[in-house]
Amino acid sequence: MTRTCTQTKTFLKTIFEQAVNSVTAAEALPPALPIMPPKGQTLILGAGKAAAAMAEIAQRRLDYPLRGMVVTRYGHECRLPDETIEVISAAHPVPDMQSNNAALNMLAMAQACTPDDRLIFLASGGGSSVLALPAPGISFSQKQDVVRHLLHSGARISQINCVRKHLSAIKGGRLAAISGTPDVQTFIISDVVGDDPAAIASGPTIADPTTLADARTIIEQYGTPHEKTITAALFDPANETPKPGSVPGRHSVIAKAADALDCVTHSAQKSGWTVKNLGDHIEGEARDIGAAHAKLALSLQKHGQQTLLISGGETTVTVRHKNGCGGRNLEYLAGLALGLNGAPGIIALACDTDGIDGSEDNAGAFVTPTTLTRASSCGMNLLNDLDKNQTYRFFEALDDLIITGPTLTNVNDMRIIAIQS
Question: What structural domains and CATH numbers belong to the chain?
Fold first, then answer.
C-alpha cells in the first residue's frame, strides 16, 4: 500500500514515539535495580537528561530507604514520590554554576558513605554538562569557554568528553574513587556511539581508559581558549583520571540507541515495510551524512520495495555563524533534502530522542518531496540557510518542525527515511 505524504508523516512520528518509549527509565530501569538492600544506607546520585526520571523509578520500585541527589537539564525535571532524593536543574550543553554546586554536593555525599552503604549512580546523556567541577587551577568560566569552543569546533562528543574528564574534579571515575563504599552500582542510558560506559556523562563512577596525552592531542587538533592554562593542566599528572581496575563498582547499560532501532524495525515490519538498518554508530558532519543518505535512499528506491532506511548515532555540526539556530538533526535533514532534490516518494524524519535538537524547542523535523519547492515559494534558499546555520528558521517557516518537549530519556539521534516507488 502506498501511503500519502500525511499518512507517512504520521506513521514515522508514531514509530519514533514508540521507539523513544522503549528506552525510557520506566521500561529499562526496573529489571536492573538491586532488590535486596545493603547493610547500611542507599545513596542515589545521578546526572543527565534522564536522571530525574530514573530517580523517580528507583524511588517507586525500591522498597527500602533511599536518599540522595540528581541533576538534570532545565526542563527535564519530574515529580518524585517524596523529597528524600533532591532534583537539581542545570545548564546544557555549556555548564552553569548549578552544575558546579551539584558536583560539590555529590562529592561530599559520596565521600561520607560508609563501607556498609550502597551508592547507586544514574547516568544518562547530558550528564557531562549538568555535573561539572573544574580541576584545580582552572576557573569555572575558563572551563565553560573550553567546552563552548569544542562544541562549535566539529569535534566528536567522545573527543570533547575526553578533554572534559581531564579538566574535571568529578568525571572520569573520580566520584567512585572518592566514595567511602566499594558497593557502587551504575545504571546507564547511553547516548554515545559504541555505548562506552566511561564516555556517557563522562563517567563519574567509571574508570577512564583515555589519558592526558589523548586530551592534549585533541586540543592540538581543535585549539582552545586560555591555551596556557589548559595546556598546563593537561601536562599535570594530578589531572590524570583513575584507570580501569582502580575504582570500585559495577555498571550496566540499560538502554541504548540499538534498542530504539530494534523497536522501529519491529513496528515497521509488522506494517509491511522492508527495513534497512545502518546501525547506531553514525558519526560525521551532519550535512554530509544527510547528503550520503540521500544517495542511498535514491538507490534503494530503484528496487521498488517499500523500504525504511533507519540509523542512529551522533553527527556533528561545525558552527560557522554564532547567531545561527538549528541542531544536528536539522542540518542532517538539510543535507538530505538538497541531495534528494524533491525526489517523489521519499519522506524523512530526524529527531533527537531527548526531545531537544541542539538548543531549540524542537526534537527534529520532516523532509518531504515538496520541501524545496515550498521553501522557494516563500523566498527561502535552503543552501544559504544551511551555510548560515539557520536551519531552525527554515523548517519553522515550512511548519515541518517536530516538537515533542523533553522525553526524559536520551539515546541520541534517530533518523528514519520512508522510501516508496
Answer: 5-21+258-419 (3.40.1480.10), 25-255 (3.40.50.10180)
List the one residue out of 375, 119, 107 whose CA is nearest residue 251: 119
SS3 per-residue string spanning 180-230: CCCCEEEEEECCCCCCCCCCHHHCCCCCCCCCHHHHHHHHHHHCCCCHHHH
Q: Identify whether the C-beta of residue 179 lies closer than 8 Å to the C-beta of residue 119.
A: yes
What was the pLDDT predicted at 392?
96
Give all strands of the β-sheet with 184-189 in edge-to-edge order.
85-90, 66-73, 42-47, 118-124, 184-189, 250-255
Report the residue count for the chain.
421
pLDDT of residue 410: 96
Q: Where does residue 281 rank: exposed (0-12), middle (13-18), buried (19+ CB within 10 A)?
A: middle
CB proximity list for 184: less than 8 A, separation 6 or greater: 118, 119, 121, 176, 205, 247, 248, 249, 250
Predicted local confidence at residue 1, as pLDDT: 61
Residue 248's H or E segment, with its range, is: none
Give me the pLDDT at residue 326, please.
Answer: 83
Distance CA 420, CA 344 (A): 8
DSSP letters for 13-32? HHHHHHHHHHTSHHHHSGGG
Map residue 292 onto helix, strand or coil.
Answer: helix
Tens-digit pLDDT profile for residues 172-209 = 999 999 999 999 999 999 999 999 999 999 999 999 99
Report the run of H or E that residue 9 belongs to, with start and end.
helix 5-22
Residue corresponding to grid cell 601536562 = 235
pLDDT < 70 stretches in the chain: 1
Helix axes 212-222, 157-166, angle to 10 degrees: 120
Comparing C-alpha atoms, which of 288, 291, 125 is closest to residue 192? 125
Residue 154: what pLDDT? 86
**Burial classification of residue 27, based on how many CB atoms lie within 10 Å of its CB (0-12 exposed, 13-18 middle, 19 or more buried):** middle
* pLDDT at site 360: 86
